[in-house]
Each structure stands twice: as structure tokens, then as C-alpha cells.
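Quick one: structure for this chain?
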Amino acid sequence: MTGIRSSEEGLALRRASFSYGPERLGVGVRDIDWAVPPGEVAAVVGPNGAGKSTLIALASGWLRPAEGAVTWRGRPPGTPSARAWAREVAVVWQEVPADVPFSVRETVAMGRLPHGDESSPEGVRIVEGAMDETDIRHLADRPVSSLSGGERQRVYIARALAQAPSLLILDEPTAHLDLSHQAKAAEVVRNLAARGAAVVWAAHDLNAVADAADRVLVLKDGRVRAEGEASLVFTEEVLSDVYNCRVRVFPDPANGRPRVFPEGVGN
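Got it. Here's what it folds into:
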């Protein structure tokens, strides 16, 4: 399952913290020490409000840490310029715009704008390939506004792939997808990592994470509760504590990976 690992520095969060509100009353994240090298899929999991989206926003440069540092290849987000950053880093947010006045092909082609080759033969080839990878080629001439939520999600994943990123950041990318396209999205993520990219994936589906991620960061109340391979951190003790829910974990008889089953709400 492991992709092409590299000694090259990837994404790093060093004692990174961010709180919402003037008196830091919101959870945000606190003292996050975490690194994601090229060639790995790293998942971030935890209950609603645990800090997953805040961590994603810090990694992408959308938020800046109040304390600590976030770097990609040793540089702060957005450097040396916004355009150069966009040539390396792509983000797919949990909520994607619906009222977009462009076709699917035009929207996916926006991923080539940082490279300046959206109209060139090479740029068109990359756009077409991204649509094929996400199974939206048949929607190419449809307005994005006419699509279902799952179809729109695939369009924005395709736009991110068209950027040919070295770092792909995903915030709940499969939330609106049906089962077959959830599996396809996981395959796309694994293929990108196998080509040497670093992938950060915030997710709720723990079983999908166990299949696709090289390692997992488990958050609770904005802090790291556990970190490591899914087989090590997806334990009944950790998950029951994090989710305040009685959880059972069993090895999949087909591949030995953990399978997570909630049993009931705890106190």
C-alpha cells in the first residue's frame, strides 16, 4: 500500500496551534506535531469539532497558525508566490460551489491556470486525463450548476488532479459520493501517492481510511490522541474514547486490516 517514499521534506506542522474567537474559546487545534513525506497518504480522523477542517486549513495556507509553524518543502504556505504555490499544492474542500457558471471541462481546466498551459495540447491532455480518472468525461459539456452533489465533488477532485500537485489536500472528499465512486476516489489518491505526491485526507469513514492510508492522525478536542498505521491506532480503546461511542474493531478476514463497528453511545 505504500507509495514512493522520498527523503525530500514534505508537509510539516511543528507545534502548530489555532483557536477561534478573541479569547481562544473555540477548539481549533493545539500543539500539532506532524509530518507527511512525499509518497504517503496520511489521513486525519476524529469526531465533528475535533479540529480536522482547521488542520486542513492550516496545511493549505488558508489559515495561519497562531503559534508554531506549517511548512511545505521547508517553506511557509503561499511562498514564494501564490501562483508557484498553486503549481505544487491542490485543495478539495468539503463544501464545493454549486452555482458555477462554467462547464465541467472549463472548471477542470482551471487546474492548469497556475501552469499557464490550459489551452495547449499538453494542458488539454492533462485535463482530459483528470476527467477520465474521476469518471466525468461524459459530463464535460454540462454546466457544473446542473450536476448532483456527488458529480460536483468529482469535478473538483478532477480540477485538483489537473493541477498535477505534489501535495494534495482533501477535506471529506467522498462525503457526497456513492460507493463505487468512493472506491474510485480512494484509488485515485493511492495512484497519486504512488507517483510521489504527498496526500492529506480528512475523513469520517474509518474503514476506507484503513484501506487507503499509510498512516492516520487521530484528533480529539483539537489535540493528537494517536498517530501511526491504522492497524496500530484503530483500537477499541482509542476509538471508543475519541468518539464517545462503544466501538468494536475486528481484522478483515480478507486482508487483515481493521474494520470498525460502532455499537452504541457512551457517557
